[in-house]
Design brief:
Distance between the termini: 44 Å
Order of helices and strands: HHHHH
Number of helices: 5
Largest sheet: none
Radius of gyration: 18 Å
Shape: flat
Structural class: mainly alpha
Length: about 130
């Protein structure tokens, strides 16, 4: 029972991290200081995705699953949980690269806007 709870906690932590890495930049528009937490999260997520292929939380989850007597899975968290839900069959690697590039461009724009908002708030005497 304890291992099953720990598996669920690891999955929730993993999912929360992904959501923050993907959407956290939007929070930076409001709270500029959050960039100090969001940027490292995005860099780590990109490095894992580009070079490691799966996050170190995945082996931990699988180990806890084995201890709980459950089936483990091959590959990474994204391949197991997210890919079947978000990526349609036949999605080519070049399409994934294009989507990734668009995400980077969107976040570059968001961070430029967030920086300008931050600078304006500073000039107007607000915090952020």
């Amino acid at each position: 029972m304890l291992y099953r709870i720990l598996v669920d906690l690891v999955v929730l932590l993993h999912l929360a991290y992904m959501v923050f890495a993907i959407f956290g930049g939007l929070l930076v528009l409001r709270w500029w200081r959050l960039a100090w937490l969001h940027l490292p999260a995005v860099v780590w997520a990109a490095l894992v995705e580009l070079y490691v292929r799966y996050c170190p939380l995945t082996p931990l989850e699988n180990r806890l699953r084995a201890l709980a007597g459950e089936r483990t899975y091959e590959g990474g968290f994204i391949a197991h949980y997210i890919t079947p839900s978000l990526y349609p069959p036949g999605l080519e690697p070049w399409m994934q690269d294009t989507l990734g590039t668009l995400l980077v461009i969107c976040y570059a724009v968001i961070y430029v806007v967030a920086w300008r908002l931050h600078q304006r708030r500073k000039r107007e005497g607000g915090s952020g």
